[in-house]
Amino acid sequence: MSNDRTATVIVEPDPGGHHFQAVGAVTDLAHRFGPVVMLTSRAGIESPALDVYLGGHLQRGDLTVVEAFDLKVPPTRDMAAAAANWCRDGVDGADVSRVVLMDGDQALKRWWAVAPQQLRGLASRPRVIFMLTRYPARLALTDLTGWRLRGPKAVLALMAMAARTLHRAVGFSGREDTSTGWIVKRVRDPHYSSAHSRDRASHRAELGLPADRLLVGIFGAVDARKNPPLILEAIDAAGLDAMLVVAGGFDDEVRAWADGLDESDRARVFLRDEFLDNEVLDRFVAAVDVVPLALTNNGPSGIMGKAQAAGVPVVTAGSRVRAREVEATGTGIACELDAASIGDAMRRVVAGEVVRADDHLSEVTAEEFAMTLLGVDAEGRPFDRRSAMTAGATR
After folding, report:
1. CA-closest candidate to residue 293, choices 271, 270, 322, 315
2. What angle do CA 313, 317, 320 make, to 5 degrees?
3. Alpha carbons 217 and 195: distance in angstroms, whole number
4. Long-range contacts formed by 297-300: CB under 8 A, 24+ apart
5. Rounded Cα distance, 16 and 248, in Å
6. Is the pTM of the predicted complex or chain greater than 0.70?
7. Do 237 and 339 touch, CB atoms closer than 8 A?
């Protein structure tokens, strides 16, 4: 089946967050080298994110989407077996040269044990790449919780590499972090934004938001970790005459909170509980005065990147990664994860106390993200260890 084309199999059962947006970036690059297949779940097939982020690829024939799993988090053995089957059969007459797990943190726990059996007997082993979305890139020596998370993942990655079932692992770093990484390569999350705060008035008019009110925004996949009740409490603690805007797909806990708001609170909260396509989401972010991120996952945030690209200040709590990022880029304030601290930080950014950095880091494009993930340049040539082409390298 050998020819000049090589196929890519992307395993992404979970459409949540901006997962499918990342799939689109990888598809743009991988399609230059041959056909691309995405193995997803029933939830992925049914998600509106499929059309929003991947509809253009489907219409152009750049990407084939296959419902391969019943669950958004299928057993690791099932993911390895599904990928191996495509490797045996090939894609449109092309050999599968790479298999990419776009959210590999959970699968990494058992991949070293189950993948060798599934990949055994393949005429040509694919290059297997894991994207780790919850791998702390930089840690203080005293951050015992972070080291307990990072250490085992590094060991598991090495075990899978020793078993020749993993060839490259990549994890998100803060946008100020320009190092390349060793076991797990680092990539800065791309800045995706089609809107800017300079057009705030028109964005508010289009979205039905008040023109002259101070707006505080929580966006994206809005689950309980984003703490809408805490942000509302922080607005009160700071004495801000502000409206809280919560827009995106709510989880059950946030929906219950929204349904339980009393009349006075409901009058100062704008709610939009639905999946937002990318352009609408960008306009929401660009329409508000401050975006608070009060969540404890110690990693970068896609919404934070949108806010930075849109010129909207950020208040972050619960993550040293995000704290270093706003401190280095001058795009917000880091604070403690409590109502008083968050409220004080929001009051300060609204008053213009954020000092924007003079020397901004260049933004990471979707193509650079995909090149770093796949470990190839735009022509498909592999990087060497010192390559300056990676999105994490100093430019």
Report:
1. 315
2. 100
3. 15
4. 297/134, 297/225, 298/136, 298/146, 298/149, 299/133, 299/134, 299/135, 299/136, 299/172, 300/172, 300/173, 300/174, 300/175, 300/188, 300/189, 300/325
5. 12
6. yes
7. yes
Tell me phi and psi for residue 220, to 5 degrees: 95, -145
Cα–Cα distances (Å) from 218 to 141, 172, 270, 290, 314, in that order, read 32, 22, 10, 9, 11
Q: Which residues contact 110 (CB under 8 A, 6 or more apart)?
A: 76, 77
- State the pLDDT at residue 391: 38
Structural domains in the chain? 6-190+365-374 (3.40.50), 197-350 (3.40.50.2000)
Res 88: pLDDT: 93
Which residue in this structure is represented by tokens 């972010």?
285
H or E segment to which residue 291 belongs:
strand 291-294
Q: Cα–Cα distance between 95 and 223 in angstroms, integer?
A: 40
Residue 11 is which amino acid? V
Sign of the torsion formed by the C-alpha atoms of 330, 336, 340 and 343: positive
The helix (H) or strand (E) run that includes residue 374 is: helix 366-374
Token pair of 338 as six digits: 């409590």
Task: Please state at what angle helix 19-30 crosses helix 366-374, rounded to 10 degrees.
Answer: 80
What is the structure's pLDDT at 140? 67
pLDDT digits (tens, 9 = 90+) for 50-77: 998 899 999 999 999 999 999 999 999 9
Tokens 């991988």 -> residue: 30
Structure tokens at 340: 């008083």
Quickly count: other Cβ atoms within 10 Å of residue 58's Cβ: 15
- Residue by residue, DSSP assigns 40-61 as EEHHHHH-HHHHHHHHHHHHHT
